[in-house]
Design brief:
This protein is of the alpha/beta class and about 400 residues long. The protein is about 40% helix and about 15% strand. The chain contains 15 helices and 13 strands. Strand 5, helix 7 and strand 6 form a beta-alpha-beta unit. Helix 2 runs antiparallel to helix 11 and helix 11 crosses helix 12. This is NifS. Keywords: Pyridoxal phosphate.
């Protein structure tokens, strides 16, 4: 097995890095959506050209289209360490969460409790908070206003035998801290509660073994993990069969269908198998063997090691600047490469200045109004967010540092 990620090989799997219109641009808004890998593009193109028919029919194009859709679900489930029927696709993570919240609305009774955080993206907060209208006791697990971190002892103070669900992010798209999912899940389960983990901001940095984490629900967005615009949802069987069906009545016995009332986007579901192709290509190139979950872990560890090495110099640089506030951990080992900073002026203005230097970054609240407010940050000003993934290389980070020095 290779000791380090071959970033040149990685970048060769992404057509964006050979695209003339993007030449000279360094992409640092990956938390909003990643570049798409070549296997996904190839599968999507093939589906639209050869198999854009109703799938699962008796004729060849239809049969092959259905097989590709099944392949995507089967391979991704194996990578994530869950059963095939525990993984489903939906239009987006926001939509998947909303549908789940409606199921919980029917399943819970007045007086039941649900715990949410103020560290979350609004997609894993707002739908759950609305359950208060149905008499659910919605409790807020609040971040430390200085560090932005969630403290396990604060959660334990909120847990009792009325809590049915604990919702929290694997990683905040503002704070960037990697939360201890195993420990949080263990505490929730000990109190008799299920857990819903928003993995959207962590999954781009490596797919995890959901089975090992113990999460009952794990959600992420394929368009941020080098794939098409789909929401991927893991819903473990025990909980999935407890909750009321949200789809057509005749799909009630199918776990992977009963929480996707809109029906699948055939081409995009099929194209999700390209994410598995990409991981397999990385594993083969780096000499990572084993079953699907084992290869996935090896690729995850390579990605995280590469990102951590690039992230620490950026954190060190920003931490030394008195004119800004660096949000979240200063140690790259405990943080995803999603870096938010509060400036004296609007974050969007600084993003525009960086764009003049070939740096693609973002400014605003990024649907993270609650954590920003909790940390005392003016929403009209927002933050500058700099986010990267494993295909980012050292010259790009060096270029970012030079641009920041000029603009700050």
């Amino acid at each position: 097995m290779s000791a380090a990620l071959d970033v040149d090989f990685v970048r060769g799997q992404f057509p964006a890095f050979a695209e003339p219109t993007l030449d000279g641009q360094a992409f640092f808004e990956n938390a909003g959506g990643s570049y798409t890998c070549a296997p996904v593009i190839a599968r999507l193109t093939r589906f639209y050209q050869q198999r854009k028919v109703q799938p699962y029919g008796p004729y060849e194009a239809s049969r092959l289209g259905g097989e590709e859709m099944d392949e995507a679900r089967t391979r991704l489930a194996a990578m994530l360490g869950v059963e095939t029927d525990e993984l489903s696709f939906g239009p987006s993570t926001t939509q998947n969460t909303y549908v789940l919240a409606q199921a919980f609305r029917q399943w819970t009774t007045p007086g039941d409790a649900i715990i949410v955080t103020d560290q979350d993206h609004e997609a894993n907060s707002g739908p759950w908070r609305r359950l208060a209208d149905a008499g659910v006791d919605v409790r807020e697990w609040r971040i430390d206003p200085d560090s932005g971190l969630l403290r396990l002892e604060d959660l334990e103070d909120l847990l009792d035998d009325t809590v049915r669900l604990v919702c929290f992010p694997h990683c905040s798209n503002i704070v960037g801290a990697v939360n201890p999912v195993v420990e949080i899940t263990a505490a929730a389960h000990a109190a008799g509660a299920f857990v819903c983990v928003d993995g959207v901001s962590y999954a781009p940095h490596g797919f995890v073994n959901v089975g090992d984490l113990g999460a009952d629900i794990y959600l992420f967005s394929a368009y941020k993990t080098y794939g098409p615009h789909q929401g991927v949802m893991v819903l473990r069987r025990e909980l999935g069969h407890m909750l009321p069906n949200q789809a057509h009545w005749f799909n009630a016995d199918s776990l992977y269908k009963r929480f996707t009332p809109a029906g699948p986007d055939h081409a995009q579901v099929a194209a999700c198998a390209g994410m598995a192709d990409y991981y397999d290509a990385l594993a083969e190139h780096h000499g990572i063997a084993g079953d699907a979950a084992g290869r996935t872990k090896g690729v995850h560890d390579l990605m995280r090691a590469h990102e951590t090495a690039l992230l620490q110099p950026l954190l060190d640089y920003l931490a030394e600047k008195n004119a800004l506030r660096l949000i979240g951990p200063r140690d790259a080992a405990h943080k995803a490469p999603t870096v938010a900073v509060e400036l004296q002026g609007p974050g969007a203005e600084m993003a525009a200045r960086l764009a003049e230097h070939g740096i693609m970054a973002g400014g605003g609240d990024f649907y993270g109004a609650r954590p920003l407010q909790a940390m005392g940050i003016d929403l009209d000003k927002g933050v500058l967010r700099l986010s990267f993934v494993h295909y980012t290389n050292k010259p790009e980070v060096d270029r970012l540092l030079e641009a920041l020095e000029t603009c700050l």
